Amino acid sequence: MNRPARYPSETPIFLATLLVVGGVLVVTTGLTVCVIPVILAVLVMFSYQANQDHHRTLMRQAIRVPVDHPTGENETLDKLGEMVRECRYTLGCEPVEMFIAPSQQVNAYTFGLDSPKVIVLYEPMLQIMDADELKFVIGHEMGHIVFGHTWLNTLLGGMAGMPSSLGAAIIFTFAFRWWNRACEYSADRAGRAACGSTLKSISALAQLAVGDINTAEGLKRALAVIEREDDSLENVLGEVLSDHPMIAKRIKALQDYQR
Ligand SMILES: [Zn+2]
């Protein structure tokens, strides 16, 4: 196993987020300690139900990757299954399910409260990414699983379905996005460990940002996007509203981690 260390700021940011959210709940709802188990139970119920629905939709609309052993029916899917097994071994990750979902976007995500967690890759990734870049993406998603982001995020996603005041909802959103962005840096480290190459990690990140970079035009587009990501007020505000850090910062964090 070669699991990397978590991004150092992640845990303090998570604790600060919990403090902010807990404080807001106490102030806005007069929440007392004995209500917390009730809120948690409702959250688990909401999240579990949403997960089950999402899983059923994937079973209908997406292609399931054979992650335990090759089936000999589809070479591409068998190769993906092998990558999943390799990444699991590298990161010491629990069993997962993986689906390829139809989409126009280049993206991936993971969800689940109990085991196995589910990793979903959008179909265009298979066209534009090579094996190492795909391993970065699979490793990144497994990073979210091994660092505990997946179940926490799935649980907190259930919070969106709970009634709260607009002010509280805005504060929750900002706080969780701050933590989400820190989690991305940890997951990128796992992706880097899974694919074994900082260069491939960076090209995978660039493709997640702009799509195909295998053409001269695509590469130019990616470099232009990364170049624009400076510390201007507009970019910094945009990042505060986002659950992902700027690509340029993620690349820099990977380069710094490599040293
Ligand atoms: Zn992520």
* Biggest sheet details: 4 strands, mixed
Order of helices and strands: HHEHEEEHHHHHHHH
Fraction of residues in helix: 55-70%
Low-confidence segments, given as residue ranges, are: none
Strand order of the largest sheet: 1-2-4-3
Number of structural domains: 1
Q: Kindly report the average pLDDT value.
A: 89
Distance between the termini: 20 Å
Written account of the structure:
This protein has one domain (10-258). A four-stranded mixed sheet has the order 1-2-4-3, with helices on both faces. With 259 residues, it is an alpha+beta fold. α2 (36-61) crosses α6 and α7 (166-195) crosses α11. The chain has eleven helices and four strands. The relative contact order is 0.13. The protein has helices at residues 10-29, 36-61, 75-91, 124-128, 131-146, 149-157, 166-195, 198-210, 216-228, 233-241, 247-258, and strands spanning 63-65, 96-101, 108-111, 117-122. The model has no long low-confidence stretch (mean pLDDT 89). The site of zinc ion has 4 residues, from α5 and α7. Zinc ion is lined by residues 140, 144, 184, 187.
